[in-house]
């Protein structure tokens, strides 16, 4: 079907936009040159015919999908290599690699995903210079394909409980890798099933019977020529999942597999030939790759949401349903204020986390520079930020992706809308790289520690500096600054209350651990509240900063979204605010009016705002969200691709239904 025009509904929407869409695209891309680079990569990638699917993935078998994903991964690697994209080495936004092309070529992930997102970064982050020189080059050229094998069948969260052992044998200068039980089998690593021939194995180091904690080892698991598993290696795929079905997540066990001493990555800790262990300056440096990936998840979460909200808002502009006024035609569903309530917060939330992700990335890069000269002062705050922002970005964005899906009614249930797949890859971010509740408890640990040290006069780190302010009641103030202060009060109130409970529980005779467990529901609330205060503060300050350089028209729209975000969150968290601030019923009534006014103000810019995410149709991969808005035509075209539609009568009619109808069964 050739579609030349644009749906008149979308044409009309685009004519009401009050700002320059390209200017916003450049801002979201972190610069006009980044937009240009991203588009150049996209032009190249989408011109490769081998990267297009003839048959939609969902109609293929599990095995066919895997084989197709491998084929495309290889072609994509080749094309990206030609464009000079250095995969596995990340920059601030990285829109050209994972952000857009990647998830458009693979709706459900690639088996090479972990090569780029964790194998290469771990070599770079944990290897000494000689090891980086050797392994990085091989990985970059795809001579070796690897993954990050940490999680085991029995333990994912509690990594001190991992069972895989690496025992040093000083006679042969080798480590012996062993999986002592079924629960010690590695379980989950992406690509591990049938794709990778090497992996980083996180294992418990033992020398002369003494444990030295979890360390990273590079282990070859398959022959480089035949791809057969090496002796003593038991490897396979873990099976079908809610999403990531083309990522080839696998299991792995070792039966006394020997590797050379220099296959332990030794940037931070070393084992000498004679078996002497030299400890790193901070044992948590072995957890470094996780910090990096948590930082990047904030951007991924915002990106998934921006794609879902683009689909849902475009569809809502072309979908007409029911009646607002009896004598008028059915309105666009986007005119229903409840629909705007579901969707506009998706745009604002995506902006909030996108701008926070750039800020967090800068904090991470700053820390990296300091770490290189032996300064780890910033690590506790970075760890807390990475954990907490990973959690609230992944849970908020996933909730809103699902809201986008439901806002499209029945059609949002179609795989061809791409909304179910977006939900699948988004919800996985709530679990991987640290399960969300566990990450909130890590955050709470850092907050309680800071609170206690603060009460003894120690200074707070920048994102906790407001803890030092006296929690005196003040009149409610609905300005952005006033709302931010109110959320900081909630954060202080929840943390202070959690600490009091901890103290009371210990005073009543509970051990510190039992007191912690008993107060943990409060503690995760305090952690979330700190994260909210951070996001509100960073989103606002980043937009204030960019507001000085962008046009007045764009500045005004950006602030509409900041306000929407602030007011929406205030109404959502009303209970907390009523408890910890002077918010009154009168204030709530006026905030509700403010919220309704904001929805009305944003309405003419809704399509402009999602167009500014600049997702090409090939990236969105959605029958409902295409730029031209011909959703029904695309739904029908895609339905015709169902293998069942290849013949008017399916053979099962003659085999089963007819005999049933005739009573001959
Ligand atoms: C911006 C653009 C970039 C573009 C990037 C592009 C692509 C990448 C994007 C996305 C990735 C995409 C695809 C990947 C897809 C899937 C991959 C999934 C891969 C995985 O899914 S891979 C497995 C991850 N698996 C976990 O995530 C396990 C979680 N479990 C833990 O992480 C630990 O088990 C923990 C922390 C719960 C307990 O650990 P523990 O028991 O040893 O520690 P404990 O609680 O006792 O704390 C003692 C002291 O260590 C400090 N501390 C702890 N952790 C630290 C750290 N990381 N750094 C610095 N300090 C740390 C504490 O703050 C405390 O400090 P203090 O003593 O001062 O209080
Ligand atoms: C799609 C996907 C891809 C993945 N890819 C990889 C990979 O490439 N490499 C890799 O090594 N791993 C990978 N993983 C594994 C992932 O990192 C773990 O699943 C994750 O860290 C959670 O650990 P778990 O599964 O052991 O959950 P569990 O810890 O068993 O969590 C189950 C429940 O127990 C609760 N819980 C656990 N501990 C505590 C606690 N201390 N306090 C309170 N509650 C607690 C949790 O909150 C949760 O509700 C992947 C997982 C998924 C889903």
UniProtKB/TrEMBL annotation:
GO terms for cellular component: peroxisome. Belongs to the acyl-CoA oxidase family. Pfam families: ACOX, ACOX_C_alpha1, Acyl-CoA_ox_N. It comes from Leptosia nina. Residues 20-145 form the Acyl-coenzyme A oxidase N-terminal domain. Keywords: ATP-binding, FAD, Fatty acid metabolism, Flavoprotein, Lipid metabolism, Nucleotide-binding, Oxidoreductase, Peroxisome. The keyword Oxidoreductase applies. It is found in: Peroxisome. Gene3D superfamilies: Acyl-CoA dehydrogenase/oxidase, N-terminal domain (1.10.540.10), Butyryl-CoA Dehydrogenase, subunit A, domain 2 (2.40.110.10), Butyryl-CoA Dehydrogenase, subunit A, domain 3 (1.20.140.10). Its main location: other. Its cofactor is FAD. The keyword Flavoprotein applies. Pathway: Lipid metabolism; peroxisomal fatty acid beta-oxidation. Residues 287-448 form the Acyl-CoA oxidase C-alpha1 domain. GO terms for molecular function: acyl-CoA oxidase activity; ATP binding; FAD binding; fatty acid binding. The active site is at 433 (proton acceptor). FAD binds at residues 151, 190. Residues 480-662 form the Acyl-CoA oxidase C-terminal domain. GO terms for biological process: fatty acid beta-oxidation using acyl-CoA oxidase; lipid homeostasis. This is Acyl-coenzyme A oxidase. Transmembrane segments: none annotated.
């Amino acid at each position: 079907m050739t579609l030349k025009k644009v749906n008149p509904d979308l044409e009309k929407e685009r004519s009401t936009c009050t700002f320059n869409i390209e200017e916003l695209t450049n801002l979201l891309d972190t610069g006009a040159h980044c937009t240009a680079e991203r588009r150049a990569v996209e032009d190249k990638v989408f011109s490769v015919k081998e990267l297009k699917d003839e048959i939609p993935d969902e109609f293929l078998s599990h095995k066919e999908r895997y084989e197709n994903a491998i084929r495309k991964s290889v072609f994509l690697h080749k094309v990206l290599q030609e464009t000079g994209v250095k995969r596995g080495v990340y920059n601030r936004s990285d829109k050209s690699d994972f952000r857009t092309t990647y998830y458009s070529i693979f709706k459900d992930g690639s088996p090479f995903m972990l090569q780029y997102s964790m194998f290469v970064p771990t070599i770079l982050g944990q290897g000494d210079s000689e090891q980086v020189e050797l392994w990085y080059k091989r990985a970059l050229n795809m001579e070796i394909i690897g993954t990050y094998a940490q999680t085991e069948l029995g333990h994912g969260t509690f990594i001190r409980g991992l069972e895989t052992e690496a025992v040093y044998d000083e006679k042969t200068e080798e480590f012996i890798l062993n999986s002592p039980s079924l629960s010690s089998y590695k379980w989950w690593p992406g690509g591990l099933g049938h794709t990778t021939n090497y992996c980083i194995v996180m294992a418990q180091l033992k020398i002369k019977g003494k444990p030295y904690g979890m360390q990273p080892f590079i282990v070859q698991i398959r022959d480089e020529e035949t791809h057969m598993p090496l002796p003593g290696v038991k490897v396979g795929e873990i099976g079908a999942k809610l999403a990531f079905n083309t990522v080839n997540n696998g299991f792995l066990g070792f039966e006394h597999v020997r590797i050379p001493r220099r296959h332990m990555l030794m940037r931070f800790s070393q084992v000498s030939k004679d078996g002497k262990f030299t400890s790193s300056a901070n044992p948590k440096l072995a957890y470094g790759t996780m910090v990096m990936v948590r930082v990047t998840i904030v951007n991924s979460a915002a990106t998934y949401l921006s794609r879902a909200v683009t689909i849902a808002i475009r569809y809502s502009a072309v979908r007409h349903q029911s009646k607002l006024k009896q004598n008028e035609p059915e309105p666009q569903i986007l005119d229903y204020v409840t629909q705007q309530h579901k969707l506009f917060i998706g745009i604002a939330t995506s902006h909030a986390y996108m701008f926070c992700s750039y800020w967090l990335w800068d904090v991470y890069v700053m820390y990296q520079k300091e770490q290189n000269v032996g300064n780890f002062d910033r690590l506790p705050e970075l760890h807390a930020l990475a954990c907490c922002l990973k959690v609230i970005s992944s849970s908020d964005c996933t909730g809103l992706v699902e809201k986008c899906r439901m806002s499209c009614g029945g059609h949002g249930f179609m795989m061809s809308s791409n909304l179910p797949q977006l939900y699948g890859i988004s919800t996985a971010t709530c679990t991987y790289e640290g399960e969300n509740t566990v990450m909130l408890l890590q955050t709470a640990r850092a907050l309680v520690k800071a609170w206690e040290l603060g009460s003894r006069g120690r200074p707070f780190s920048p994102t906790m500096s407001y803890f030092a302010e006296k929690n005196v009641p003040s009149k409610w103030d609905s300005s952005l600054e006033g709302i931010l202060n109110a959320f900081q009060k909630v954060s202080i109130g929840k943390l202070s209350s959690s600490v009091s409970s901890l103290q009371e529980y210990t005073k009543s005779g509970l051990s510190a651990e039992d007191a912690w467990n008993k107060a943990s529901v409060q503690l995760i609330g305090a952690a979330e509240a700190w994260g909210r205060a951070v996001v509100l503060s960073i989103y606002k300050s980043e937009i204030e900063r960019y507001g000085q350089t962008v046009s007045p028209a764009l500045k005004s729209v950006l602030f509409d979204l900041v306000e929407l975000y602030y007011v929406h969150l205030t109404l959502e968290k009303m209970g907390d605010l009523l408890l910890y601030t002077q918010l009154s019923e009168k204030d709530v009534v006026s905030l509700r009016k403010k919220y309704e006014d904001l929805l009305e103000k944003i309405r003419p810019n809704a399509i402009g705002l999602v167009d500014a995410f600049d997702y090409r149709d090939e990236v969105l991969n959605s029958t409902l969200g295409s730029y031209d808005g011909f959703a029904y035509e695309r739904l029908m075209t895609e339905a015709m691709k169902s293998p069942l539609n290849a013949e008017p009568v399916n053979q099962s009619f003659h085999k089963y239904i007819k005999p049933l109808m005739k009573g001959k069964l």
